[in-house]
């Protein structure tokens, strides 16, 4: 293994240790409150609405929508959000991350969740610089903070996953959103805070650069049971492997070497056939030869 790979792996292991301690601390805090806790390290989705799990609440959507159910649970959930792909490396977008969640179905109030959240942050020696909330909730929710945190009105404080929605209040430290409390359906609680962002602020753990973020994301997908392919999760994995290669990076895994060789073969095939099939569109090239024309410039360079 190259020196750069060893250094990257060492940095990753150190980050996992500190983030792991924070997750364990959160688990202990929840259990001390009598709240059941589940830890999920796979990014496999809990339903068919996403390719990967994108939020800790995904598995609980049926409970949010069941008016006969009440109860409270907590978890740490590995998540992956492809919408952040072009933002990685900026210090706040991680592509894949661990969400620390608290979910209450017609049991906890917004005030209870605020007290819980501030108490947990207090165990980390952390207080938010300010919180935001929707103007429609200022009168009702401001007293719940009891003057403990400055409040800023923000009309964007509405959350929705397409089927379940609610007003939210967001917590900020050093200009970074560290988590939020959502009030789905006006009767439930959905709290989510990012372990990596908290770790970065509390422990000073430096964020991974873009290449290391891509490497970690690829390994998370692989460890969740996926292989490179032409469809769905396998296609995402293949695209990420190609991006690592295009950025001049490497990955100490057989899938990376296999994809690099595969791209060389596809590039040679395209150069051999492009004049003969110059009238064919992108769909034909992909369906017939597995060549993605959106990547062809990188393939043939």
From TrEMBL:
Keywords: Aminoacyl-tRNA synthetase, ATP-binding, Ligase, Nucleotide-binding, Protein biosynthesis, RNA-binding, tRNA-binding. GO terms for biological process: alanyl-tRNA aminoacylation. Signal peptide: none annotated. This is Alanine--tRNA ligase. Residues 17-269 form the Alanyl-transfer RNA synthetases family profile domain. InterPro entries: aa-tRNA-synth_II/BPL/LPL, Ala-tRNA-ligase_IIc_anticod-bd, Ala-tRNA-synth_IIc_core, Ala-tRNA-synth_IIc_N, Ala-tRNA_ligase. It comes from Rhizobium sophoriradicis. Pfam families: tRNA-synt_2c. GO terms for cellular component: cytoplasm. It comes from the Bacteria. Belongs to the class-II aminoacyl-tRNA synthetase family. It is an enzyme of class 6 (ligase). Its EC number is 6.1.1.7. GO terms for molecular function: alanine-tRNA ligase activity; aminoacyl-tRNA deacylase activity; ATP binding; tRNA binding.
């Amino acid at each position: 293994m190259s020196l750069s790979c060893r250094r990257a792996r060492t940095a990753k292991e150190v980050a996992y240790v500190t983030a792991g301690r924070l997750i364990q601390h959160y688990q202990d805090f929840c259990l001390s409150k009598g709240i059941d806790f589940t830890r999920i390290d796979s990014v496999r989705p809990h339903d068919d609405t996403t390719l990967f799990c994108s939020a800790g609440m995904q598995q609980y959507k049926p409970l949010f929508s069941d008016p006969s159910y009440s109860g409270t649970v907590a978890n740490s959930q590995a998540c992956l959000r492809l919408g952040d792909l072009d933002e990685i490396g900026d210090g706040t977008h991680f592509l894949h991350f661990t969400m620390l969640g608290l979910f209450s179905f017609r049991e906890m109030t917004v005030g209870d969740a605020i007290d819980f959240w501030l108490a947990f942050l207090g165990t980390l020696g952390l207080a938010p610089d300010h919180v935001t909330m929707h103007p429609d909730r200022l009168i009702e929710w401001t007293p719940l903070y009891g003057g403990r945190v400055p409040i800023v009105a923000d009309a964007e404080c509405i959350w929705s996953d397409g089927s379940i929605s609610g007003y939210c209040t967001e917590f900020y430290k050093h200009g970074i959103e560290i988590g939020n409390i959502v009030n789905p359906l006006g009767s439930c609680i959905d709290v989510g805070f990012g372990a990596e962002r908290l770790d970065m602020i509390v422990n000073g753990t430096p964020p991974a650069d873009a290449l290391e973020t891509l490497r970690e994301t690829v390994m998370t997908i692989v460890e969740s049971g996926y292989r490179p392919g032409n469809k769905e999760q396998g296609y995402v994995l293949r695209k990420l492997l190609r991006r690592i290669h295009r950025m001049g990076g490497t990955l100490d895994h057989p899938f990376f070497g296999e994809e690099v060789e595969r791209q060389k073969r596809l590039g040679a095939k395209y150069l051999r056939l492009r004049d003969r099939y110059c009238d064919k569109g992108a769909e034909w090239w992909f369906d017939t030869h597995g060549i993605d024309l959106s990547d062809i410039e990188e393939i043939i360079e």
